[in-house]
């Protein structure tokens, strides 16, 4: 048992418990960049470990009835065969250095998409809050929202997400959940997470079976991942009630971007410059977006606005 690897998995599991995202997006790059595991072995071992962990969270959401099974069915029609096909795509490229380079580059692109998706998710939430606050958003009807299910786009989302997961292990949480938000903006947050988790069970299982047959699964790596990530996810879930989710998501997006740049082979000096630029510009850009939607630039001043307005009216 590699206890250093288990400690790394504990850290990643904690992040996943805090944010609900970033399992494959952080675990696989960690294996490749810090532990020298080949990309194919990293993807294979991470997917098998995820196949063991995914049903735990899914059972909770099924018990709480926060799963849209109609969406799960359409997603799985596309994602399950596509996930297995993704493994075959990797296999077709051969067991040489070329396959490792291809998977590493594909993983880097997937991480950039995932980091971008975190920003899109935060912006959509900001816009939704603005519509709700100024009255342009209709009141929520009682009971679950009525969805106009769109089969073909939903199957397409599942197919694309499944293919990416089969090749890179990234996307079952980060990419598909963003696509669901765009397709079904009326979905409640709990239903969005629950639906994504349940559809990810057969998706990840399909990809894991493919990697067990055709990939480079290593039992020692997967065992260390499970030993660390399961308690890490539990710790993260406990901490999530005390820490700012927005702060955690920003940190996650930064880590995803840094990992993506290194996986894409970007020079270390250029990586540092790009990350520094993002660090400097991200804050002002987000403050500008907040002000355009009628919010104070800094969230901590938001609660003081209604009180100030009331004093003005009283005067």
Q: How would you state the average pLDDT, rounded?
A: 78
Strand portion, in percent?
under 5%
Distance between the termini: 70 Å
Give the ordered list of helices and strands: HHHHHHHHHHHH
Largest sheet: none
User: How many individual helices?
Assistant: 12
Task: Report the strand count.
Answer: 0
Radius of gyration: 20 Å
> What structural category characterises the helix and strand content?
mainly alpha
Number of domains: 2
Give helix % range: over 70%
Uncertain spans, ≥5 residues at pLDDT below 50? 135-140, 304-315
Principal-axes geometry comes out as: globular
Molecular structure report:
With 315 residues, this protein is mostly helical. It folds into two domains: 3-264, no CATH class; 267-315, no CATH class. It has twelve helices and no strands. Helix 3 (39-63) runs antiparallel to helix 8. The longest helix has 37 residues, at 97-133. The chain is globular and about 55 Å long. The protein starts with a helix and ends with a helix. The model is unreliable at 135-140 and 304-315 (pLDDT under 50).
Question: Topology of this structure?
Answer:
Layout: H1 3-19, H2 23-35, H3 39-63, H4 69-92, H5 97-133, H6 151-168, H7 174-183, H8 189-214, H9 219-239, H10 245-263, H11 268-292, H12 304-314
Short summary:
With 315 residues, this protein is an all-alpha fold.
Defining key terms:
single chain; 315 residues; globular; disordered C terminus
